[in-house]
Amino acid sequence: MPDEIYPIPTGFAERARVNAEDYRRRYRASIENPDAFWAEEAKFLQWIKPFSRISDTSFDARDLRIRWFEDGTLNASVNCVDRHLPGKADCAAILWEGDAPGESRVVTWGELADKVNRLANVLKSLGVAKGDVVTIYLPVIPEVMVAMMACVRIGAVHSVVFSGFSAEALASRIADAQAKVLVTANEGHRGGRAHPLKHNADEALRDQPSVRHVVVIKRSSADAPFTPGRDLWYDEAVASAAPWCEPVEIGAEDPLFILYTSGSTGKPKGLVHTTGGYLTHAGTSWRNIFDWREGDVFWSTADVGWVTAHTYKIYGPLLNGATSVMFEGVPTWPDSSRWWSLIEKHKVSIFYTAPTALRSLMREGDGPVRKHDLSSLRVLGSVGEPINPDAWRWFHRTIGGGRCPIVDTYWQTETGAVLLTPLPGAVPNKPGMAGRPYFGVRPEVVDARGAALEGPASGNLCFRGSWPGQARTILNDRERFIQTYFAPYPGRFFTGDGAARDEDGYYRISGRVDDVVNVSGHRLGTVELESAIASHPAVTEAAVVGYPHRVKGQGVFAYVTLKEGVAETEPLRREIMGWVRARIGPIASPDIIQWSPALPKNRAGKILRRILAKVAANDFEDFGDVSTLAEPAVVEDIVKRRQQALAIKETA
Ligand code: WT7
């Protein structure tokens, strides 16, 4: 069957930042001489002291080095905010929409700069200095940007924690980073409900002596607990702070931020991104990938707690002086036309979202979309997980009116910026495929032995050669950084994903090949989930796998072994779900719990997740090599229990 190809829309390439010919030429040049290419890109930034060294990099696990523009100095907030003031002080930087319809704010570049300077002074007065970590636990409100920019203005390192994470998850991230200050809000609003952020924060801080002060934003008039001496209200503090804060000169390789993500062991990893390389890559890739030009209105629906938002909702648009929409709520409240109404209201021209949201909105049919005029849209983007062709086509036709290219952008918290994508004016779309490499990056598909495969092939996805936006290390754990990404395939960065490359050099991502599940575009480590479940007093042991889920992409399937004598009851099942929600957050709550008096293990005691994943996917045949199983009857039992559960569901 020939590939389904969607050509670049008529007239698009002529005006695009990058057309097919530019892509070919610049891609080749960027690979032949990456230093020359990136040095040119880095001119996009305003440097205090220009760099003379471009890159010093090695992916050799015994001598790992990732350094870009090392002797240059700059300040991120100057690049993101001050630079735009001369022409844009009164123009909109942020078009904010609250959870409740009708609640909206416009933040101009001038106001943004004023708040950033004042909050930077407040942080300074609280003792925050260059290199100190500030944890930010906020809903999607403009103050997130203010807080991030205030940190980097004084060289402090921000660590944004998703506001949907529990107190416990917040506490472990604060402890790992030894944050000095926490910025939070009294509450956050989503889907018509208020979430008690300050209450969670207080709980998280019970045992975190590193945090000396808490800056509290009044998101609403609701009361919140307040500890005098430690806590201060944002409004009062910025009102009395001086309106100018001298930006601190920062080295290109000084840390800009930490962002935690899940891996294949229990503990979340704090990936460290540095300043010069990250900003170069974020700012230039953002405008190329979304084909941004002056006058566009950009909207990324990502929550500020994820890397998508860091690079392409905060840094990318800010570095370019772009206007963007920021929305606190959810797409389905008060009804499923909420996003579409906002696109119409703000004449959004570039819209970046996640497949899981599209799949859930698609189920509501075209009705909610048709109520709104989406003709302002010009470029669409997808991120976070593979987009299935059905959702792709719906996005293309129903949302994009058939006239907008879709950039399916493949990247990771670790990569800092996009590595694979069909640039919209240069690479025709194939639904479900993440396109071709971005400038300066060299993908490789490798087999199990680490040999790079040529031409059409499938295997594990690696990258050869450094790019400026990549993470430099895992905070407090350089060894884990090396072992996870550089040791598996010598000389290469290993993504943890499987991929297939076709005859046109397009890549299709098949998903994680490690113990990580991707639930609604959120990465969850199975070991982290297992330890959360196993910490419940009624549980002996748990094994977690992902299974295909219509809306979430993957759902969380947990096999749980209860302690001797504990009854397998419905209330206990719900209690365990709540237990995980409280320990990690609602996104991690298991979709299915199956009681399993024993788990399939090999003679060395290792759980055979491969078999569990097949059963969870209702695939009961051909379990491959089962000769290593310690007790084959265990598999029969888990299959029987799964089949019984399915039979009950069918008759229900
Ligand atoms: C993992 C990274 C990058 C921002 C969001 C997630 C999966 C990401 C795609 C895509 C297929 C994708 C991969 C990757 N992923 N984008 N376009 N197509 N899969 O960042 O939380 O660090 O997760 O998300 O599995 O490894 P993250």
Characteristics:
about 650 residues; alpha/beta; GMP Synthetase, Chain A, domain 3; 8-stranded mixed beta sheet; 7-stranded mixed beta sheet; about 30% helix; binds 5'-O-[(S)-butoxy(hydroxy)phosphoryl]adenosine
Q: Would you mind describing this structure in some detail?
A:
This protein is 32% helix and 24% strand. It has 652 residues and is α/β, with parallel strands linked by helices. The protein has a domain at 515-651: 2-Layer Sandwich (GMP Synthetase, Chain A, domain 3), CATH 3.30.300. Helix 16 links the parallel strand 19 and strand 20 (406-409). Helix 6 (109-125) crosses helix 7 (142-153). The longest helix has 20 residues, at 632-651. The two termini are 40 Å apart. The model has no long low-confidence stretch (mean pLDDT 96). The chain binds 5'-O-[(S)-butoxy(hydroxy)phosphoryl]adenosine. 5'-O-[(S)-butoxy(hydroxy)phosphoryl]adenosine binds next to helix 12, strand 20, strand 26 and strand 27.
| CATH architectural grouping of the domain at 515-651 | 2-Layer Sandwich
Mean pLDDT: 96
Described by strand count, sense and barrel closure, the largest sheet is: 8 strands, mixed
Number of helices: 21
Strand content: 15-25%
What helical percentage do the residues reach? 25-40%
The count of strands amounts to 32
Name the ligand types: 5'-O-[(S)-butoxy(hydroxy)phosphoryl]adenosine
CATH superfamily placement of the domain at 515-651? ANL, C-terminal domain
The largest beta-sheet arranges its strands as 12-11-8-6-7-14-15-25
